[in-house]
């Protein structure tokens, strides 16, 4: 949708330019016949004369000029938003999650985050809710736990029913943490466009 909006806005700005440019060509040369060998109306003009003529064209048809300027100025915004969403799909996050990951990065930089990696058998099993998550490819439970310490010390030993204990490791960067929802760019893209 954002890509199509960018294309439509760019095309709208281009159409506005064509109409206003035609008016300027007719005003400066008196006719529109290219067969007569006319140069473009802006040849041999200074920048101030060029700006003055465009100002005249915008004032003659201010509705078309206003719409064209609006389309010209908003097309880069829509295209930039499209690129940002493409990046979010590549990263496997949402805008809310990107905020969450930036907070985790700050805690990691302060040395407050510890991680435990192991099998998911120590975690409570959760059945998949087919109403809310019927077609998701990511796992229900993660094989890692993250702990944010208040004082920079690792948590105490966490024991499980099978007698195993968690071994906590200090986290030095986000690259050590697995994003449960990041399936890779191709699979994330399929997940975005897959009909539910």
Mind sketching the topology for me?
Layout: H1 2-29, H2 47-60, H3 62-91, H4 95-109, E1 113-117, E2 144-148, E3 169-170, H5 185-193
Helix pairs in contact: 1-2, 1-3, 2-3
Q: What can be said about this structure in brief?
A:
By secondary structure, the chain is mostly helical.
Write up this protein.
The protein has 196 residues and is mainly alpha-helical. It is built from five helices and three strands. It is elongated and about 85 Å long.
Number of strands: 3
Number of helices: 5
Average pLDDT number? 78
Beginning-to-end CA distance, first to last residue: 18 Å
Order of helices and strands: HHHHEEEH
Assign the structural class, choosing from mainly alpha, mainly beta, alpha/beta, alpha+beta, or little secondary structure: mainly alpha
State the helical fraction: 40-55%
Q: For the largest beta sheet, what order do the strands appear in spatially?
A: 2-1-3
Gross geometry: elongated
Q: What is the beta-strand fraction? A: 5-15%
Low-confidence stretches: none
Largest sheet: 3 strands, antiparallel
> How large, in whole angstroms, is the Cα Rg?
29 Å
